[in-house]
Description:
Elements: H1 7-14, E1 18-25, E2 28-38, E3 44-48, H2 53-58, E4 62-68, E5 78-88, H3 92-105, H4 113-120, E6 123-136, E7 144-147
Amino acid sequence: MTSSPAPAFHHALAAHTTVTLAYTDADGPQACAVLYAPTDRATLLFVSSPTTRHGRALDGARTAFTVQADHQDWRTITGLQGHGTCRLLTDPEARAAAWTTYTTRFTFLADDPALTAALARTALWELTPTDLRLIDNSQGFGHHRQWPA
């Protein structure tokens, strides 16, 4: 990301926990939903095995994504749409920092040592947005802000 989006974009990323990633591989289009932790750079960290279909397809791939809460009334829908690039975090220092961010966001992991151990053995990923669209129907149907403008 060349510049950081406005605080409203950071706030929207912090307000949600699940991102749906859309990508294409040799078998065609596919989507997956993963829990994410936003960083102060407005990137999204998520955990997934590199052996899954999306894990095999995402490293270095350009992806589309959406972030929103479930069960919203259409008049008050808020969320984000965007494009970005995913990368597998292989550097031990970057992975450690990402894991700290992730486990700080999802404190329930501390309550389940087996789950924490399983996730610690899998891969950490970073989604770096190249553009974001902040949707806020509470300001009118289809109201949005775009980054970069």
